[in-house]
Amino acid sequence: MSTCTTCPYCGVGCGVLAGADGTIKGDPNHPANAGRLCSKGTQLGETIGLEGRLLAPRLNGQDTDWDSALGLVADTFRAAIDEHGPDSVAFYVSGQLLTEDYYAANKLMKGYIGSANIDTNSRLCMASSVAGHKRAFGSDTVPGCYEDIEEADLVVLVGSNLAWCHPVLYQRLVAAKAARPGMRVVNIDPRRTATSDVADTHLSVAPDGDVALFNAVLCRIVDERRVDAGYVATHVNGFDVALDAARAAGATGLSAEELDRFTKLWAGTEKVVTIYSQGVNQSVCGTDKVNAILNCHLATGRIGRPGMGPFSVTGQPNAMGGREVGGLANMLANHLDIENPAHRAAMQGFWNSPTICKTPGLKAVDLYRACAEGRIKALWVMSTNPAVSMPEADAVAEAIRAVPFVVVSDILERTDTGDLADVLLPAAGWGEKSGTVTNSERVISRQRAFLPRPGQVRPDWQIIADVARRMGFDGFDWADEAEVFDEYARSTTVSRDFGRDLDLTGLAGLRRGEYDALSPIQWPVPGEGAPGGRFFAEGGFFHADGKAKMLPTVAPQLATPPESYPFTLNTGRVRDHWHTMTRTGRSARLSRHMAEPYVELHPEDAVALGLRDADLARVSSPTGIAVLRVLITARARRGSVFVPMHWTKHTAADGRVGPLVAADTDPVSGQPASKGGFVAVEKYRPGWQGFLACVNPIALGQVQGAVAAAPNGFSAELFGEAPTDWEALARILASEPNAVASQITDPARGATRIALERDGDLVALFLAGPGPVEAARSHLLTRIGQPANPLPLLAGRNAADRPDPGPTVCACMGVGANDLKAAIAGGCHTVEALGEATQAGTSCGSCKPELASLIATHTPVAAE
Ligand code: SF4
Q: What mean pLDDT value characterizes the chain?
């Protein structure tokens, strides 16, 4: 039997049918995905095992009981507040939390402790969109819905690799374009990505050239008389001042022809949706980028009507829920404002709380600076890993270490942040907890438990309530998550009565059974009248006069890299991993697509640096160093490099991008500019490089490299200083001191291959040499844990019946690049034909852009 729940990864918010045996299917009745799932969602069943789970509270590394742990947390926070004041403590929470968890944490910090020092990893993700919405609309309101994307005649993607980061939404876009070939898609991104494959036009805008670009669109709208004068006169302030700012030209990095074609297309297309994401938000001018986009939609009145509007797509499953209940340090609750005394008094009245925060709290970057400066005496991190994900991550780890008392709630016993904690609290995982999440289009969905809670784990809302009660606070006596949700829904009477957007009063008073049965529903959900719908088609903005504001957005000077750090650093996600890999890193299938951290750079830059594909490169910035595998692709923009964000001290200590990223922030939103730092790149020559496949977990320790899950075990890409005894090193890395070793060495090349057998099975295979290891990894991994026949493998031969499939492209069906190239050579020249021949792309479809790219590259050209 399956349980209807929601995917815990991106903000698309797909419905999932999950079985206790780990079977996963897309929910055909969920409005976000109608049965589709991407590769990450499809493989959720591989991520729910208990290996490495934190199953009991821990104090200084020793298991303890809940009473002791909760008492210590409550007493220490209470003592810090009594001695140093409420602003001496802080929570750092996560878009992975459910709305009920978020609600409890925000209520405790803002309404009972009396500080606003609660910030969230959503600060790294969409704080600039929140700030842009508030400046333009008077409220953090997403006006439209996913159907707008399908109904648009022009979809413009800005700083959004939708194909990898919001794959099901991308699939909906691809399907819509296939059904209506007249639809135009423009992808605006410095880097050509998988998303570019659906686009009619890819515009390689200069990093931070987006403000100038949308200012140019606004000018074109005016010059071509596309302004909706009636809408502007009735519903919009600030038109003239915004236009004046837009008239001051700025650099976009595009040719005059590209600029002309794009601005003409945007201005001339009534049904236009502009989707934007981290490429817009993660910038020192992120909020201005958002407002430059919103200005164009406001000037044309193309907002809140079918097929038109600006659309911020959120990175995390519950970034929107967190925004709603006040998870950001500069928001109160229910989209109300901390700075507004009437809002504060009303929320305090609803909570009947002893106090209320008076001023905004510390945003993430400032919060960790305060930790480093000794101003934070007690810190509680929930469901996130800032020692990896924050900019200047090594400095953040030191800052956390400097806090006298650190609590971390997590599902895992070892994370980079958990390793710094005094107290670890075992939180329930995705399949074990129950509550609600809100996706990018304001649809609230139930996340339902389908697994028993292992060990002593507890849901986050309950842990927070337990601590609150021990601190002596009333108001946290919820019996279950349904009661938390009911209180949240009732609290929106406050925002409704202020005439704000967030109204869930129609969901207040749900009985437990009704809450359990709740179907996905788009807010607002008023007490009377139909729920959901779009905002702002007829105005109704949330500034005091009911009008929207167009903002003067001044295009910044494009930054010139300093001589010592000549490349712009772009960071982001890969297709099959999520954040710091605490879940996706457990899946062998998901780990095969990108098994190690890499730096992507343009072929001409590679030539200038003397780098070849699969070399190692040392990438450095003023704040950190990483050693990364080189991936050369014409998709990169010259002068820019891309490094993915997922690897940690536990998976690739030298391959982490966080330490490289400078902690520069947008002055309005406080969001870090994670796509705008500068780095130097040079060839890195280790003493040796190697590949290890084995049945046991691999502890790196004395060598460098990256570990990954693999079928029947684990794999590692390794490098380091040349050891004196290869066999001894292989045994240590594979944790196989007593296995029988076979070894072939090639002294002329300085290469060695070692097989370790135990009880007749091949338990480890270690290949090493002076340069990148050339080996059919997919094939070798299939032999691990199987009856040993090491000689062909040591000789570098594949078994006759198992040709090397090549690097994994389709994670679901396990299809490699070599198999696909062979099928293309055999006549499969469409994605569908490749699917029929190899099964690639026939499950979740997330790899279809890569299939199209392979076809484009490898289809033989007919002779003239
Ligand atoms: Fe999950 Fe993929 Fe859907 Fe995002 S697109 S919610 S990661 S299944």
A: 94
Contacts (Cβ under 8 Å, ≥6 apart) of 775: 691, 767, 796
Q: How many angstroms does the Cα of residue 164 sit away from the middle of ligand 1?
A: 10
Q: Which atom of ligand 1 is nearest to the CA of 37?
A: 8
What are the CA-CA distances from residue 190 to residues 194, 568, 636, 642, 840 (Å)? 13, 11, 8, 10, 29
Considering only CA atoms, which of 460, 384, 463, 373 is closest in space to residue 416?
384
CA–centroid distance, 7 to ligand 1, in Å, is: 6
Q: Give the integer Cα–Cα distance in Å for 433 and 712.
A: 29
Closest-CA residue, ligand 1 atom 3, reads: 14
Residue nearest to atom 4 of ligand 1 (CA): 10
Whether 796 shows a pLDDT value over 80: the answer reads no
DSSP string, 680-710: EEEEE--SEEEEEEESSPP--TTSEEEEEEE
Q: What's the pLDDT tens digit per position in 225-246? A: 999 999 999 999 999 999 999 9
Q: What proportions of the chain, in percent to the nearest 5, are helix, strand and coil?
A: 35, 20, 45
Nearest atom of ligand 1 to the alpha carbon of 13:
6
Report in angstroms the alpha-carbon separations of 319 from 11, 127, 208: 7, 10, 24
Which of 5, 6, 10, 164 for mutating ligand 1's site (highest number of atoms within 8 Å of CB)? 10
* Cα three-residue angle 828-833-838, rounded to 5 degrees: 90
Rounded Cα gap, residues 98 and 315, in angstroms: 15
Distance 5 CA to ligand 1 centre (A): 12
